[in-house]
Amino acid sequence: PRSKLAIAVEYTKTKRALGKRTAKELASLPRLTDERIGMGLRISELLLTSCYQAQPTMFALLVFQMVRATLKHGINISANEAFVAYGILLCGAFHDPQRGREMAK
Fold this sequence. Notes:
mainly alpha
């Protein structure tokens, strides 16, 4: 498993990439058009459940990667799962329930 430092670094990158965007602003991101990126996000989405139970460290890293990919390439069906999972992390591990609820909308 990756270290807590790796999680902190990836969290910081993701938080910086999100800035102060609201759920409404995130919902209005452009649509993802690259099918390869879409398939990668779909595979990541399918891995989330297993990682949450078996490898929580990898779960967090996968969520951060999915959120940043969505911000960079656009929104698709898998983005919903990414932002809900990000909200779960914010509410739990990062002790920011207000922002967590916002991200999970």
